[in-house]
Write a structure and sequence with these properties.
By secondary structure, the chain is mainly beta. It is 10% helix and 49% strand. The chain is built from one helix and eight strands. The protein has one helix at 2-15, and strands at residues 22-36, 39-40, 45-52, 75-82, 88-96, 98-104, 107-113, 121-129. The strands form two sheets. Strands 1, 2, 5 and 8 form a four-stranded mixed β-sheet that branches. A hairpin with a 2-residue loop joins strand 6 (98-104) and strand 7. It is elongated. It starts with a helix and ends in a 5-residue tail after the last strand.
């Protein structure tokens, strides 16, 4: 009887956990270079955020103008890194059913919809001048 109670407690405990759902065999790698007015942004924090798949994050190729710090957006930081002395960075994170956004200072851009992209993939953003709003 004691084993049954412990077993049921463990099973219910596992199913009651609220976690982000990621696929263990899928990873994304994002790389690129950030510059401002042609000069490399050195040692700047680059953050990858995962937003709820149903959020209103703009999925166009343009830099995001909407306020992603609005509390109505639910997101989680999935990884972060710093740019090197040339402004280059490379960061990886697990795949999942989320909208992924890259952020640096006040610049943010949608990079991937995990609902439609289901594979290990390298995303090369090239050189991005954050001073220019495209």
């Amino acid at each position: 009887m004691k084993r049954t109670i412990v077993f049921l407690f463990c099973v219910f405990g596992l199913f009651s956990c609220i976690e982000r759902q990621y696929e263990g065999d899928e990873r994304y790698v994002v790389q690129g270079t950030f510059v401002k007015d042609g000069k490399p942004l050195q040692h700047e924090l680059v953050v990858i955020d995962a937003y709820d798949i149903n959020s209103n994050v703009d999925t166009s190729e343009k830099p995001l103008d909407n306020n992603l710090n609005d509390p109505t957006y639910r997101y989680t930081v999935v990884n972060e890194t710093y740019t090197d002395e040339h402004g280059a960075f490379k960061v990886s994170f697990p795949g999942g059913y989320y909208k992924y956004v890259i952020k640096l200072d006040k610049y943010s851009k949608f990079i991937l919809n995990g609902k439609f992209v289901r594979a290990t993939r390298v995303i090369d953003l090239g050189t991005t001048d954050i001073a220019k709003k495209e």
